[in-house]
Amino acid sequence: MESATAQLLETGKKVGADSWQQRVKNQTPHCAFGESGTCCRICSMGPCRITPKAPRGICGCDAHGIVGRNYLRFTAGGAATHSDHGRSIAETLYLSAEDGNYKVKDPEKLLRIAAEWDIPTEGRDIYDVAHEVALTGLQEYGKPFGVQRFLKRAPEHTQELWHKAGIEPRAIDKEVSQSMHMSHMGNSSLPEALVRQSLRAGLSDGWGGSMMGTEFSDVMFGTPKPVDTEANLGVMEKDMVNIIVHGHDPSLSEMIVYYANDPELIAYAKTFGAKGINVAGVCCTSNEVAMRHGIPMAGNFLQQENVVLTGACEAVVVDVQCIFPALGPLSKCFHTKFITTSPICRMPDSDFIEFEPANAGENAYNIVKTAIENFPNRRQELVNIPSMKKKATVGYSVEAIKKCLDGVTNSHIDDLNTMKPLIECVKSGVLRGAVAFVGCNNPKIRPDTAHIELMKKMLEHDIILVVSGCAAQAAAKAGLMDKEARKYCGEGLKRVCTLVDIPPVLHMGSCVDISRMMILASDIAKDWGINISQIPLVGCAPEWMSEKAVSIGNYVVATGIETFLGVNPYTKGSSEVEGLLQGSIEDWVEAKFVVDLDIDSMGDRMIECIEKKRTALGI
Ligand code: MSK
C-alpha distances in angstroms, 342 versus 345, 496, 598? Predict the structure, then answer.
């Protein structure tokens, strides 16, 4: 991969393009105050920076208060972002109609949610139910009283822990705005209170906004089932119109995929000399369309510039989150159209085609047409698509995993649609446990290496993996989501994968879909009759970079899952905040963070943690 990237960067040099590799050099070394979290600029008396000579800011806040406030604001940014994604999916569900752009594709799931939320369904039109579910979901953002409805999905023990710790999330917008309020100048500077609110805001994301984002997407676009696809830059097609969808919200990409298959538009592409239209994805939009349609994955976060550098990209169509502003100037060095579509994500040097659910069909049609008309503008001398790609099977929603397990159960009815077969494998030791790999790429780590090295180490130790986000694409590009990847597994895991006919790395979706992993952990705990924190399961984000990842980390830990990070969340400057996050929050939620920048040692500690849980269970 590295030699292919080097070649692409050469092309970039020829046309005067910038690159993240160069910008990292320009930005290094990073500001030590920023890195340790001890710079405060939440009022205009500063900025204040903590040093041995100046141990307090002008207001008197010490390093622990400053680091704690910064950590809470980081979390609130992530919780707001994921949850706002969930909100726009709920708004789209509210507009769904039998003859509209968006329909109900999984009525069974819709009815299940309606029943959970005491919404009547008997004798009602499915779209009436959809609208009431959507409206009820939207009220979860601002309801004056009560806690998030989906908390009831967690085991009772977990719900009790949240209640006792005072971290049950209330209205989502309340948790985000209260986090900002608490961390305003002259409010909280007590690390314990700031960390507690961080967990609460994170939970409002994972068990609120993100969970609605996932569930309502499934209702409208279908609950994912295993489907074959391919991953890496080699999925781009030399003779076709290449449209890259990038970002997070499937409402746009679903429509682009629909129109890219439109015979009239395919015929139109042929009139420009192309053999057809090829849609491929980057980042989590890629996960969304891969797991529902098998759309190939061009790459993950740090590969977004590479798709343009191939010289064969007619349009990068983006919605929200994780989009480099660099794509604007970069696309100007090539023929690529950089098309932004959301008022939430406006960038210089882009063509803005506002995408609205009400005009979704028309907007998507125009975007595909624009890409087609750009095909003749390619500069053939710049075209260089690296030939690398790997096969992958994706789309393991919780429902799909249970279905796979049903296929091998000795089928008394009680054991169907449960996690019991998997639990038996863990109890017997055929599988040692599981790791949830999530998160991004970060230039602080050679892209994908931490993901891949750790994943391979886990597989060797008979530990099964569930993955999402850019970690999932790292796995796909390395061939770990191909059934052939059984060759990397220990004997036990290999046997299970062969029997159930699954790859050893199960793709669960985008970063919003980490909510699926929370349901999976809850179902395992309930079917096993233990607490989530007792399951031989850990979370791992070795290359994380975004505020969303910090919010995720907070809700994963608060759900009782020990979480390993390969990048420090700007907390080094406070022994008290680190002491809470990496130590005493365990007393509240039975799990904590482990930060380890050494990949080898992190892997050993993850295995050790899983083995300790096994010993405690007596298995
Ligand atoms: S896209 S948040 S880089 S996983 Fe969800 Fe990838 Fe991280 Fe963005």
Answer: 5, 44, 39
Token duo for residue 571: 């907390």
CA distance 139 to 577: 33
Q: Measure Cα distances from 23 to 20, 147, 308, 338 in Å.
A: 5, 44, 17, 20
pLDDT at 413: 59
Cα torsion 183, 188, 190, 193 to 10°: value is: -80
Decide if 562 contacts 539 (C-beta within 8 A). yes
Q: pLDDT by residue (tens digit) across 574-603?
A: 999 999 999 999 999 999 999 999 999 999
CA distance 137 to 357: 18
Q: What is the pLDDT of residue 358?
A: 85
Is the shortest distance between the CB of 340 and ligand 1 below 6 Å? no
How open is the CA angle 386-298-4, to the nearest 5 degrees? 25
Task: Give, using CA atoms, the residue closest to atom 8 of ligand 1.
Answer: 322
Pocket test for ligand 1, best of 205, 304, 318, 440 (most atoms within 8 A of CB): 440
Contact 205, 103 (CB under 8 A): no
**How far apart are the CA of 496 and the centre of ligand 1, in A?**
30
Question: What does the pLDDT look like over 428-442, one tens digit per residue?
Answer: 999 999 999 999 999
**Domains detected in the chain:** 54-221 (1.20.1270.30), 233-382 (3.40.50.2030), 394-617 (3.40.50.2030)
Question: Ligand 1 within 6 A of 510 CB?
Answer: yes
Ligand 1 and 550: CB distance under 6 A: no
Neighbours of 354 (CB within 10 A): 11
Q: What pLDDT sits at residue 1?
A: 63
Q: What is the DSSP letter of 206?
A: I
Q: 0.85 exceeded by the pTM? A: yes
13: left (phi over 0), alpha (psi -120 to 50) or beta: alpha
Residues ≥6 apart with Cβ < 8 Å to 114 = 120, 121, 129, 132, 133
Ligand 1: distance of its center to the CA of 265 in Å? Answer: 31
Q: Report CA(284)–ligand 1 centroid distance (Å).
A: 6
pLDDT in tens, 177-198: 999 999 999 999 999 999 999 9
Beta-strand relationship, 48-49 and 39-40:
antiparallel
Show the DSSP H helices in 313-397 as ranges: 327-332, 360-374
Cβ contacts of 256 within 8 Å, gap of 6 or more: 243, 245, 279, 317, 364, 367, 368
Closest CA to 318 of 372, 244, 421: 244
Indicate which atom in ligand 1 lies nearest the CA of residue 287: 5
The DSSP code for 520 is H
CB 286 less than 6 A from any atom of ligand 1: no
Per residue in 244-253, pLDDT (tens digit) is: 999 999 999 9
Is the pLDDT reported for residue 409 higher than 80?
Answer: no
Whether 567 contacts 211, CB under 8 Å: no
